[in-house]
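I have been asked to look over a protein record a colleague put together. What it holds is a sequence and that sequence's fold in token form. Please read both lines and tell me whether the tokens look consistent with the sequence. I do not need a full report, just your reasoning and any doubts. This is what I was given:
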Amino acid sequence: MPPVYLFEDSQVDRLYPLTCSRAPFELRAGAVTLLERLLKNLGTRIDGVLVRSSLAETLRQRLAANPQTAGISVNPPTSTSDGLILINARWLLLKSAGPWQIPEPDAAGLSQNSIVWMHLSPELAKWVDLSKIQDPKTLEHVLPEVRRASSDATLIQRPWDLLTHQSAAIAEDFAAAGGHANHATFVAGPGGAHLINPEKIHLAPGVKIWPGAVLDAQNGPILIGPDTEIRACAVITGPVAIGAHCVIRNHADIREETTFGPGCRVGGEIIGSIFQANSNKQHHGFVGQSILGEWVNLGAGTTTSNVKNTYGKVKIPINGLEEPTGRQFMGSIIGDHVKLGIGTYLSTGSVVGFASHVIVPKPPRFVPSFAWVTGSGIARANFEKLEAIAATVMARRGATFTPADHALWVQIASEYALAEKYNWQD
């Protein structure tokens, strides 16, 4: 059996700003990441991952901290003596697609003009320089030598593709968790909350539910992870997946096709959105069809418009271009460590780059990374101050801002200063 590696390809920047600080397989659709889903559904082991060198050390820390991924190497020394199997890091492999069969050597599967997988014999594997795997020419030059097949695999091309597959992913994760379960503690007794269609509700050990909460699974399952709290009078309408150690605040309205990764604290009205992990929206305000990274904080009253006045298809500004989403309902994409002040209103199809702080009610549709946005305009934020804020925020959740995090921040600041194509008025 040749070694199996996940690899980042040249399309990683199309997932900006979510992949500034993570590999595509760390993105979340449903209750788990693309990597965790591949581990369940691929039908073979994953020996290692091949990613940007700037990302390697922080990724090692994250994989090691997760029992499911602790044995996976990052940019390991590689040998081609047994051949290679390469798997695209953007592959969302749902179980409904059926099991993937390892093909005979010297074959490749292609979807959406990208390589989904490639199995190379030792002879052809010698042609591939895995240290340059992000360069499209690295694999393209061996394509004429292999059998090529069209694949119906789902590759995440743009951030909003994650939203498209939320319902299917949540349904799969509910089944994988064992379906219906009720290990919750009801603070006022079982009669104090209302579970509608309880056969489609999975409550993990340590879940606490306060009086007046409503969990409505008539239109899709509800999956709630360990040690999460559902506070008084919150309403959750499935399909919804909520990770471990989350808090759903009093009177929250959490609506269909929404996912919260572990450690999120949320309130207000949220629909059709993904919060990667450890992000806060604790107050009133509306978030619709939006994707938030990690360590994001939305101030009270923050609202993301998710539909144009014309009801037309939404475009999103990414790396200097207006990208069509093909979606009528599309909110905002918000990078890691972003902070939005009280009463922030984001226009339909907004993007806020990595670690930016917005302290103005109506920012422009595109805010670059490491920006400080006030009534005076957009200025470069003080880098050391942003790092200090991040370290403080992470410490509140028992996490540490490490030297590897600092090195990654420096790399992001230098790389995306050009990629974002923002005309700084310095």
About this structure: The domain at 4-157 is CATH 3.90.550.10 (Spore Coat Polysaccharide Biosynthesis Protein SpsA; Chain A). Residues 22 and 55 are 7 Å apart (CA to CA). The chain has eight helices and 42 strands.
